[in-house]
């Protein structure tokens, strides 16, 4: 007997950061808004739909965005607010399923094959979730419903913003046929260009290739491409994924070149990173530093300790030791970042207090 298809919902908030700003400041409604700094080194973190009509997109340099849209309004990000709204949204999800896989603050997969609150169909559940998000947060969300993650995500994109679209098992293979390969989640611009060089431009073109042909040229990913061209995706919705790393970074208004500028420049990064460790009760053994130069060339250096790093001072010392040989640089430094990985739970006393060593380090 064939197994019944899974019921997957993909929820994606519409222009999330920008929509929160427009919700909280009525003067921004209907205007092109970019969340991010407006200076020469600024980057757009999010753009409202009004701004997107001018070509403004996230990760775009702010100066470029301003040239594209003279009326663009820049607002500084408020990540604590976005996180709070995200918690509201995820609390709504939890009323319907325990199988929730967050992709970011504003996006998640939900497996409602066996829901906590059965409304008769995944479509009805998605419709009710969208209505509750609108009522409880004042924001809109788009939803895609299908029998696997690939198609659920494609479906949520299909009717954005504030849309709901369903791809049934009967419609799935035909739906992916005409899509440009770059629309498939998991195929980025570089892979799309490589596929185009092979004469593969659409889902139909991709489906015309053998599994052997694709794996020979793309390795393990080739098998995934073979499946998605047939609207097949066997990845489960994975709840409570283990966090593998935690990091922070900062971009400077003026390129750094002297070593004595580095410790004070990194002080906010260390503070943010260590506060997150204390909050989440985690510690890491591997420290990785990232350097981005003025020409955007990236360089990383890492060191792994025998035991978890138990004090902020140790994190700072290891990070600065890794960076010191890189100074003075041949060109200015635009960005510095620090990441902790090989994470594990930090020892914590009873009554939910922060781990003693972490708390002492954070207060220093």
Brief rundown of the structure:
By secondary structure, this protein is an alpha+beta fold.
Structure description:
With 364 residues, this protein is an alpha+beta fold. It has 3 domains: 167 residues, Alpha-Beta Plaits (2-Layer Sandwich); 57 residues, Orthogonal Bundle (DNA polymerase, domain 1), CATH 1.10.150.20; 119 residues, DNA polymerase, Y-family, little finger domain (Dna Ligase, domain 1), CATH 3.30.1490.100. It contains 14 helices and 12 strands. The strands form 3 sheets. It has a 5-stranded mixed sheet. β5 and β6 form a beta hairpin. α4 packs antiparallel against α5, α10 crosses α11 and α12 crosses α13. The longest helix has 19 residues. The chain is globular, with a radius of gyration of 23 Å. The protein starts with 7 loop residues before the first strand and ends with a helix. The C terminus is likely disordered.
Distance between the termini: 63 Å
Task: Provide the spatial order of strands within the biggest beta sheet.
Answer: 5-6-1-7-8
Order of helices and strands: EHEEHHEHEEHEHEHHHHHEHEEHEH
Oligomeric status of the shown chains? single chain
Number of separate structural domains: 3
The DSSP helix count reads: 14
What's the overall geometry?
Answer: globular
Structural class: alpha+beta
CATH fold title of the largest domain = Alpha-Beta Plaits
The CATH homologous superfamily of the largest domain is termed Reverse transcriptase/Diguanylate cyclase domain
Q: Please, what is the average pLDDT? A: 90
Highest CATH level, the class of the largest domain: Alpha Beta
Q: What would you say the CATH architecture of the largest domain is?
A: 2-Layer Sandwich
Q: Largest beta sheet, briefly?
A: 5 strands, mixed
Unreliable spans are 348-364
CA radius of gyration is 23 Å
Helix content: 25-40%
Q: Compute the number of strand runs.
A: 12
- Quote the beta fraction: 15-25%
């Amino acid at each position: 007997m064939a197994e019944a298809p899974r019921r997957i919902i993909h929820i994606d908030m519409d222009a999330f950061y920008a929509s929160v700003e427009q919700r909280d400041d009525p003067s921004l409604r209907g205007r092109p808004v970019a969340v991010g700094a407006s200076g020469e080194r600024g980057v757009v973190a999010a753009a409202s739909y009004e701004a997107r009509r001018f070509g403004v997109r996230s990760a775009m340099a702010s100066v470029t965005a301003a040239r594209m849209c003279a009326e663009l309004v820049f607002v500084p990000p408020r990540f604590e607010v976005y996180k709070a709204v995200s918690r509201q949204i995820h609390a709504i999800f939890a009323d319907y399923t325990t199988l929730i896989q967050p992709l970011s603050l504003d996006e998640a997969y939900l497996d409602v094959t066996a829901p906590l609150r059965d409304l008769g169909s995944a479509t009805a559940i998605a419709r009710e979730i969208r209505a509750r998000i609108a009522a409880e947060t004042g924001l809109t969300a788009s939803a895609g419903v299908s029998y696997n993650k690939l198609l659920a995500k494609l479906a949520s994109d299909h009717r954005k913003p504030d849309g709901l679209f369903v791809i049934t098992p009967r419609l799935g293979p035909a739906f992916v046929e005409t899509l440009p390969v770059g629309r498939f989640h998991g195929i980025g611009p570089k892979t799309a260009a490589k596929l185009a060089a092979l004469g593969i431009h659409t889902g139909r073109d991709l489906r015309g290739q053998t599994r052997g042909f694709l794996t020979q040229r793309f390795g393990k990913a080739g098998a995934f491409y073979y499946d998605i061209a047939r609207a097949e995706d066997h990845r489960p919705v994975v709840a409570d994924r283990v966090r593998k790393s935690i990091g922070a970074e900062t971009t400077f208004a003026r390129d750094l070149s002297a070593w004595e500028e580095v410790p004070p420049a990194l002080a906010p990064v260390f503070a943010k990173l260590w506060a997150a460790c204390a909050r989440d009760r985690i510690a890491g053994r591997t420290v990785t530093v990232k350097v981005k130069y003025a020409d955007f060339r990236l360089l990383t250096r890492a060191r792994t300790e025998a035991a978890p790093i138990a004090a902020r001072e140790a994190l700072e010392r290891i990070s600065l030791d890794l960076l010191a040989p890189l100074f003075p640089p041949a060109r200015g430094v635009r960005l510095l970042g620090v990441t902790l990985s090989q994470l594990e739970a930090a020892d914590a006393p009873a009554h939910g207090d922060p781990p003693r060593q972490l708390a002492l380090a954070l207060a220093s």
